[in-house]
Design goal:
Elements lengths: L2 H21 L1 H12 L3 H22 L1
Helix pairs in contact: 1-2
């Protein structure tokens, strides 16, 4: 993987991260407020699930 692929992946991540606040800021704010109320263990669980899902996608596409 060259550096261009890394920067492209980072740019796409930012596009996806910006879609919800741009399209529906009220829903995004309510969702973020609910996330803030989660315990550390719950946040770690969701983070682990996201990490594993991302790694599975990378493994399938590589």
């Amino acid at each position: 993987m060259d550096s261009n692929s890394f920067w492209l992946a980072l740019a796409l991540m930012l596009v996806f991260e910006g879609l919800l606040p741009f399209l529906s800021p009220g829903n995004w704010r309510r969702t973020f407020e609910q996330l803030v109320k989660l315990s550390d263990g719950q946040l770690r669980f969701f983070g682990l699930c996201s990490l594993l899902l991302g790694l599975a996608c990378v493994a399938m596409l590589w």
